[in-house]
Fold this sequence. Notes:
Elements: H1 2-18, H2 31-46, H3 57-73, H4 76-88, H5 109-119, H6 127-138, H7 143-146, H8 152-155, H9 157-167, H10 170-187, E1 188-189, E2 194-195, H11 221-237, H12 245-262, H13 284-299, H14 305-321, H15 349-362, H16 367-372, E3 380-381, E4 393-399, E5 403-410, E6 416-425, E7 428-434, E8 447-455, E9 458-466
Antiparallel strand pairs: 1-2, 3-4, 4-7, 5-6, 5-8, 8-9
Helix pairs in contact: 2-3, 2-15, 3-4, 3-5, 3-15, 4-5, 5-9, 9-10, 9-11, 11-12, 11-13, 12-13, 13-14, 13-15, 14-15
Amino acid sequence: MKHILLLFFLFILFYNTIFPGINEKKEIFLKDDITAVMKKVCDWQLGQPRRYRNNDWTRATFFTGVMATYHTTNDEKYHNAALEWAEENRWELFDGGISGRDRGNEHCAGQTYLELFFIQKDSIRIASIKNAFDYIISNPKPGNEEWWWCDALFMSPPTMARLSAAAGEQKYLDFMNTLWWENNEMLYDTEEHLYYRDSTFKINEDGSGPRTRNGKKVFWGRGNGWAAAGLVRVLQSMPTDYPERWKYINLLKEMSEKLASLQQIDGLWRTSLLDPDEYPAPETSCSGFFCYALAWGLNQGILEEDKYLPVAADAWKGLVRCVDESGKLGWVQKVGSYPEAVSRDDTEVYGAGAFLLAGSEIAKIDEELLHNIDIPDKFYVNKPYPNPFNPITTIRYGIPEDCRVRLAIYDILGREIAVLRDGITSAGVHEAFWDGRNDRGLSVGSGVYFYRFKAGNFTEHGKITFLK
């Protein structure tokens, strides 16, 4: 565990040291830069060998992101990639989308088929989807059986809602609506405003049930990411006058408020939402989905700009930090169903899909709003947190104008041992990280150290205690 944590924190330090521009909003929020990083991630993933069945949920999730990249960039390359994928699948859902206890997963591919149908209305593109849902409606199961796990809320309901729009038949939307709220009654915690992954994670009335090592309820990051992203994708296809639309809007508001409160200092979320200390590394698939849902809510005027724009902006900054020079997105939890450790090298195709969905909505937000979102009106430095610390502490600071920033660590004899930042930095709020190592990469001894911050004519200093 300590080894995993150290890798995580060294990764953050590496990116902030080697690529200082990553913290500058001018290089994060300009439309051209958003589309550039989306293309980079999409191209890298398209170039990777296939690890899963071609039309399963992992790759289907990625291709929702490929289509989002196409709509954002207008680059036919991405339309053609999605079209080629759909044609390889013969526009079919695996096993017709009607077999197995978790058949909802097989419906995910239909989302891209439907988007391609809206571009060229060829009935063959939606035939398999229509056959599957006609069968399911004719042989109905309650929502707590059909969609017994919260991941299903991304896989199946958006496909059913899109089919309703494509076929012009409200029966699909009405059936989806019934199943959604039956699932919601079983898995949604009305106190925490989060979804249990499935009923085995629920806390009983007497307080018994699974908990984290620190005694918290178990709410899986990606499981709630599936739910949040699925929710907004349903809303995208739901008519504005649909009688129960308001319930989905209220659900998005409830979840968004809770998720904003659980965002960590790096802008990302953890695999265990209520207990981030259980697995402290960031997780980018859930963070991508949350960023996507929040940004969509902002773009639709559903979420308050002053409250949620900083959350979405910080999430996007955090996600971009996790993309390496090749375009690989790291810190993606592997296929699973509960909170687990994640590392820098972990990547999965669906994580790229979540990232691309997030970018597609961030790109719609006004650049000036994003650029100015967290520019303070004065210089300041927050106290290091945590302090005392092991293995890493964070120093957050704000500067109201572009200027040279220098932040260094000194020992009790006044000797400079590490420089955390030294260079021109854009106006805004930034973080620097110290992992108890000197500039030669060697771990320092336990004890008291001092930081000195200088930006323009502003200076600040304070004490840090490192514990081994």
